[in-house]
Design a protein that fits this description.
heterodimer, A: 252 residues, alpha/beta, Rossmann fold, six-stranded mixed β-sheet, four-stranded antiparallel β-sheet, 8 helices, 25% strand, B: 386 residues, 2 domains, ten-stranded mixed β-sheet, 15% helix, globular, binds adenosine-5'-triphosphate, binds magnesium ion
C-alpha cells in the first residue's frame, strides 16, 4: 500500500526527517511513537503533500505509484485520507456540504454518516467554526467516512477526547480500517477477503487507540530516524517504564 | 471621485404603459427581474408588488389587507404630504443628488404595514431602468407600525448592461415600537451605471431593522451610506452586505448605526471581493447611551487586482458602551485551500468552495427562487475571480 524509501524532509533549512524507510501493507495498521518534536506530524503532512515540507531525498510510493511530487488532491483521490489536528474554519461552508464534497462522485447520506459519530446537530454549522477538540475529531472522522480512503493517516486520535467519545472514535476508526464493529453476518470468508483493505498510520502518545484497532506493528521516530520496530503494546510499555531515551537504546 | 454630471441625464420624458399583470413580462426583462428578487409569478409568493420603470410607476398592488402600497405621489396626496415622514430622515439639501430627487419626484414606493400585522410573504419592489441616458429619481417611504413585521425585497436593476444611466433614490424607513423590518436589496447594474441612494431609518423601542444588501455585478459608480438611528430602548439593527467589484467598478458604500438609546444593539457585517474594481467599505457605529453593544465586521478579499479600502469607525460617547470591530483585507488563506485539497479538491475547486462560502447569503433568509438566482450569478462571475 505505502512504501517510503530514504525519505528526507526539510522545514526551512532544518532537516527534520533524515532518511526514513517504511512499508505498510494492505490492511495493516502501523503505529508511530516518538517524543514531542521528533517529526511525526511532519511525516504525515509530507505524506499528504503539504507545502512547506521540502522533500530533499527519497521517494514515496502509494499503491504502486510514485507520489513523491504529486499534489495533495491527487493523493486524496488515490486514497490517502488524513485527520487534521487543527483544521481551519471555512466560513459559509456547512459541515453537511463538506461531507458531500469529501465523497466526490460517490453519493453519501451525510445524516446517516453523522449519526454514527453523534454529529447530526453540527451538519448545518460552518465547518470547524467553534468546534471543540473532541468535536473536531468527530468532524474529521465524519469527513473521512465520506472520503473512504485506502490509507488512513491519523495524528493523535485520543488528544482532547473524553472517555465516552474515545469509545465512539475508537470504534469508528476501527470500522474505517475495515475491522468492522462486528463481523458482517452472511459474508463468506472469500467475500470478506475480497473486500477493500484499508491501511492505517496512526500517531499516538497514550496508546488508548490500541484498545480499538488491530495494530501489529509499530516504530519510534527519534532524531529524524525510525527505529525499534516491535509490537505497539511492547513499545508503549517500554516507553512507560524507561522513557524514550532508554527505550531507543534497549529496543535497538 | 465625481464620475458623472447629473445634467447629462434626462429626469423626465420616458413613459411606459401600465403592467397590470407582472407575469406578462417576458424575455430578458423577466430574467433581469428574477435576478433582482422580483417574482413575476407573484400571486401567492408575494404580499404585494411595486414596479417603477424609468420615470414612472407601472405596477402597484397589495395582496394583503394589512399592507398598503402606493406610489409616493398618491401617498403624498392621500396623507397630506406625509408630515413627520417625508424628508424627515434625509435632508433634501444634503447634496446635489437629494436636491435632484426633491426637484424631480418621479415616484417611488410608499409601503405601510398595519400595527400588529405579521406578513408571512415578502413585499417586492423594483426600480427598473430601460432608457438610455435616463435619470431615475425616486423617493421611498416605509412605515412598519407597532408590532408589525414585514420583509421587503427591493431589486434595482438596469435592463441592458450597456445602458448609461443614473439612479437617485431617497429612502426613509420607520420602524415603530416592537416592529420588524427586513429590507433586502439586490442591485444588478451595468458598466455605465451611476447609482447614488440616500437612506435614513429610525427604529423605535424594541424594534428591529435588518438590512441585507447584495451587489454582484459591475457598476460604474455607486455611493451610499445608509444611516439607521436606534431611537428607543431595546432597538436593534443589523446590516449584512455582500459586494463584488469587477474591473471598472467603483463602489463606495457602508452602513451607519447611531445607538441613541440604552439597551440597543447594532451589527454591521460586510463581505467584499474585488476582482479588479475599487471598494471603499465603510462602517460606523456610534453609541450615545449605555448599555449598548455594537460590532462591525469587514472582510475583504482581493482576487487578482483591485483595491479594498476598509474604514471601520467606532464612536463611543459614554462610559459603559461595548463597541468592537474586526477588519481584514487580504487573500484566501493557504491553510483553507490545503485543507480542501487534502479532501480531493484541486486548487480551483478549493478556491471556488471558499469564495462561495465567503459570499454565502443563507443568513439573509431570502426566498428560494432568489437564492438560486444569486447562486447562479455567483457561479457565472466566478470566471473573473481566479
Ligand atoms: N512550520 C514550521 N516551522 C518551523 N519548524 C517547524 C514547523 N513545523 C514543525 N517544525 C519543527 O519540526 C520539528 C518536528 O515537528 P512535528 O510537529 O513533526 O513534531 P511531532 O513529532 O509531531 O511532535 P508532537 O508529539 O509534539 O506532536 C519540531 O522541532 C518543530 O518545531
Ligand atoms: Mg505532532
Amino acid at each position: 500500500m505505502l512504501k517510503i524509501e530514504g525519505l528526507k524532509v526539510n522545514i526551512g533549512d532544518r532537516e527534520v526527517l533524515k532518511g526514513l524507510d517504511l512499508h505498510i501493507k494492505e490492511g495493516e495498521t502501523f503505529i508511530l511513537f516518538g517524543p514531542n518534536g521528533s517529526g511525526k506530524t511532519t511525516l504525515l503532512l509530507t505524506l499528504m503533500g503539504f507545502g512547506g515540507y521540502e522533500i530533499t531525498g527519497g521517494r514515496i510510493m502509494f499503491r504502486g505509484q510514485d507520489i513523491t511530487r504529486a499534489p495533495s488532491y491527487e493523493r486524496a483521490r488515490l486514497g490517502i485520507g488524513m485527520s487534521f489536528q487543527r483544521p481551519p474554519t471555512i466560513h459559509g461552508l456547512k459541515t453537511k456540504h463538506m461531507v458531500r464534497l469529501c465523497a466526490r462522485d460517490r453519493v453519501v447520506d451525510p445524516e446517516e454518516l453523522a449519526r454514527k459519530v453523534n454529529f447530526e446537530d453540527f451538519l448545518e454549522r460552518d465547518i470547524n467554526a467553534g468546534f471543540s477538540g473532541g468535536e473536531i475529531k468527530r468532524s474529521e472522522i465524519l469527513q473521512l467516512m465520506a472520503q473512504d480512503p485506502r490509507l488512513l493517516l491519523f495524528d493523535e486520535p485520543e488528544s482532547g477526547v473524553d472517555l465516552e467519545n474515545m469509545q465512539l472514535i475508537g470504534s469508528t476508526v476501527r470500522e474505517l480500517l475495515g475491522g468492522g464493529a462486528q463481523p458482517e453476518p452472511g459474508l463468506s470468508l472469500k467475500q470478506a477477503k475480497s473486500r477493500k483493505l484499508t491501511s492505517g498510520l496512526i500517531i499516538t502518545h497514550t496508546g488508548y487507540i490500541l484498545d480499538y484497532v488491530n495494530a501489529d506493528r509499530g516504530q519510534v521516530l527519534y532524531n529524524g530516524h525510525l527505529c525499534c520496530e516491535a509490537r505497539p503494546r511492547d513499545i508503549l510499555e517500554h516507553i512507560r517504564k524507561y522513557g524514550y531515551q532508554e527505550c531507543v537504546r534497549c529496543l535497538n | 471621485m465625481k464620475p458623472f454630471e447629473l445634467n447629462q441625464f434626462a429626469f423626465e420624458g420616458i413613459s411606459h404603459a401600465r403592467i397590470d399583470d407582472l407575469s406578462t413580462i417576458s424575455g430578458a426583462d423577466k430574467e433581469r427581474l428574477i435576478m433582482s428578487g422580483v417574482d413575476v409569478d407573484e400571486a401567492g409568493s408575494r404580499a404585494g408588488s411595486f414596479l417603477h420603470m424609468d420615470h414612472g410607476n407601472v405596477h402597484c398592488r397589495s395582496r394583503h389587507e394589512a399592507v398598503e402600497i402606493l406610489d409616493i405621489k398618491d401617498a403624498l396626496t392621500k396623507y397630506d404630504g406625509l408630515p413627520g415622514h417625508f424628508w424627515t430622515l434625509v435632508d433634501p439639501d444634503k447634496d446635489e443628488y437629494t436636491r435632484t430627487a426633491n426637484e424631480h419626484l418621479q415616484g417611488g414606493y410608499f409601503i405601510k404595514v398595519a400595527a400588529g400585522a405579521k406578513i408571512a410573504t415578502p413585499v417586492q419592489s423594483c426600480l427598473f431602468i430601460k432608457g438610455q441616458k435616463a435619470g431615475q429619481s425616486v423617493h421611498n417611504v416605509v412605515i412598519v407600525e407597532e408590532g408589525a413585521e414585514v420583509h421587503i425585497l427591493t431589486g434595482c436593476a438596469v435592463a441592458n448592461e450597456q445602458s448609461e444611466a443614473v439612479h437617485v433614490g431617497v429612502s426613509e424607513f420607520f420602524v415603530k415600537k416592537g416592529g420588524k423590518l427586513t429590507f433586502s436589496m439586490i442591485h444588478n447594474w451595468g458598466e455605465h451605471m451611476n447609482v447614488v441612494p440616500r437612506t435614513g431609518g429610525i427604529v423605535e423601542a424594541g424594534g428591529v431593522f435588518q438590512n441585507n444588501y447584495i451587489l454582484l455585478k459591475q457598476v460604474k459608480y455607486l455611493q451610499s451610506y445608509p444611516t439607521i438611528t436606534l431611537a428607543g430602548p431595546g432597538a436593534r439593527a443589523r446590516f449584512n452586505s455582500v459586494l463584488v467589484a469587477p474591473k471598472g467598478s467603483y463602489v463606495d458604500t457602508g452602513s451607519r448605526i447611531i445607538m441613541d438609546a440604552p439597551d440597543t444593539r447594532g451589527e454591521i457585517i460586510s463581505k467584499t471581493i474585488t476582482t479588479g474594481g475599487t471598494i471603499i467599505a465603510r462602517g460606523h457605529i456610534q453609541a450615545n447611551y449605555a448599555p449598548a453593544k455594537g460590532h462591525l465586521e469587514c472582510k475583504g478579499l482581493i482576487l487578482g487586482g483591485g483595491r479594498i479600502h476598509a474604514i471601520p469607525e467606532l464612536d463611543g460617547r459614554v462610559e459603559g458602551v461595548e463597541l468592537s470591530h474586526e477588519a481584514a483585507v487580504g487573500k484566501i488563506a493557504r491553510r483553507e485551500i490545503e485543507y480542501l485539497m487534502a479532501r480531493g479538491q484541486d486548487e480551483d475547486e478549493a478556491t471556488s468552495t471558499i469564495v462561495r462560502g465567503f459570499l454565502n447569503v443563507d443568513i439573509m433568509g431570502l426566498p428560494d427562487k432568489l437564492h438560486a438566482a444569486i447562486e447562479k450569478t455567483i457561479s457565472e462571475s466566478e470566471k473573473d475571480m481566479f
